[in-house]
Write a structure and sequence with these properties.
InterPro entries: ComplexI_NDUFA9_subunit (IPR051207), NAD(P)-bd_dom (IPR016040), NAD(P)-bd_dom_sf (IPR036291). It holds the Pfam family NAD_binding_10. GO terms for molecular function: protein-containing complex binding. The protein has one domain (about 5-295): Rossmann fold. Helix content is about 40%, strand content about 15%. The chain has 11 helices and 12 strands. The protein has helices at about 5-20, 30-35, 50-60, 80-100, 120-130, 150-165, 180-190, 215-225, 240-245, 255-260, 290-295; strands spanning about 25, 45, 65-70, 100-110, 135-145, 145, 165-170, 175, 180, 200-205, 210, 230. Helix 3 packs parallel to helix 4 (about 80-100) and helix 6 (about 150-165) crosses helix 8.
Amino acid sequence: MIGASGYVGSRLVSVLLTGGHRVVVAGRSLDKLADYGWFHDVTAVQLDADDPLSTNAAFEQIGPVDLVYYLAHGIGQSGFREADSRAAANVAAASQAAGVERIVYLGGFVPESESLSDHLAGRAEVAQALRVDGGPEVVWLGAALIIGSGSTSFEILRYVADRFPVLPAPAWMGNRIDPISIRDVLHYLVAAGESDQVPAGDYDICGPDVTTYRGLVATYARLAGTRRLTVPIGGPAAGVAARVSAAALPIPAGLATDLITSLDHPMSAAREGIRTVVPDPPGGLLTVDEAIRRALGPDGSQA
């Protein structure tokens, strides 16, 4: 797994170990990986995906691998779009040389537009870089906003809704979005690793509810027990709002800017949904209300 120290990756490691899988985690800093409770139950190797020599050496050290989860991204860093594509190409080449059968990549929805943010355009470019002639088959899962405690997008939502009693609501806050709970993201990632269940290809993953960014703020405020007033305003464009908002958010300014700029586009599922090949988890997919309640609950760090 490449990206095991991230929000999704760290949780996916736990799920895979519970399922009896042998997991190898790869990253630039083994010290960072050692902070996780599962560290002594996995094999850890040092891998700098931006360096083809490091990437090839890591795969040689690991030995035979059936499946690679590619969850790494450099959003928020200078020049991340080109760096992400370069890193993905290095991993694809090393995977091909190592005889890897499948790569599962978690990216985002990519709306049809000629003016995509670097964040959105970069997700599709990474998927393309992972595909090489004669290389591993690729499953690309695209998700919009992931609801769960610790998800960067959800924490931005939480921070804004908790601290500002009156929220300006530009027109783009009415854009449609198909969010998904972290529990259901993990369900689909595990299923995507099974070639006999999920054919190679691109799939959008989402929960059962369609809402808007404004609706998400209202739902969060209701469930958190706070009252928030949203006031419709004309403008500013998401790019302008991103640069202003970044200074007020408790995350790196570059990351906030890249994420908020992406709000200019509706984030709704467009490609074939994975539900055509993967059954829903027991009890069904979590609604927005259920996902937010889990994130706000006493076990929110696991939600």
